[in-house]
Records
---
Amino acid sequence: MYLKLTNGTPSLYSIERLRRDNPNTSFPKIPSAAFLADLGVYPYTRPDRPDVDQLTAKVIDGDFEQDADGNWIWPYVVRQLSQEDAAGNVRSRRGNLLAESDWIVTKSIEVGQSIPADWAAYRQALRDVTTQEGFPYSVAWPTKPE
């Protein structure tokens, strides 16, 4: 994983591309860091991708940066979704969870029984998700009965 500095601006690069860009140059099988640096090519590291709630945030590529030792890093950046988009995503998930539990309502109606209390409480808790403090960015999802 390499980058190339062109007029001080880093961009993704590869050893294969370096060889294609310089067809008349003989390269060592494994070029040294010093050799690559003379050509403006540097290795970079990539941190682990952050684990985020995809209903309320997205992970995007950041800009290349150097650490205190001069090593190049290509970080990830977490961007919180707008309140409108996050709320829509949470409502959509809630709707899917309600739809997944519709069978218990249908079964209860078909046999002329009440909806089991644990399922009724679960479905009500799903409906109440939008009234939780912190909605939509902080939602405590109810546990589905077994």
Note: The mean pLDDT is 96.
---
Amino acid sequence: MIKLKSLALASVVAILFATTASRSHAQVSVEVGIAPECPYGYYDYAPYSCAPYGYYGPEWFSGGVFVGAGPWFHGPKEFHGYVDNHYDPHHGYKGPMPKVHDKSERPERAPHDFKGNENRDGRGHTAEEHHPR
């Protein structure tokens, strides 16, 4: 009888242990590679095509260098910058597009006469207006 009780107790403990054992969660790793080398920056959404001159405003450039967008964004956490979405294919733009490794046709990368109409966060999201233009 003692052997039967011990076997029953061991079975109950084994069942409890099996049902409460922690489950391992799969880890996902995404390699994004190096950022596209575009003369005026690249869109902040996949497939991260090169954006034309005039899409990004001056706040997207630091010392003439694009601060990045999408997975390669390296601006401040609370960054918001203006874009002119008239130059965005998602908004109907069908004009000329630079290719990766093209050289800038303008000495400065950010247009001086820029008129942004959308505030973005650099990570593919429209941001709330913080500084009206």
Note: The radius of gyration is 26 Å.
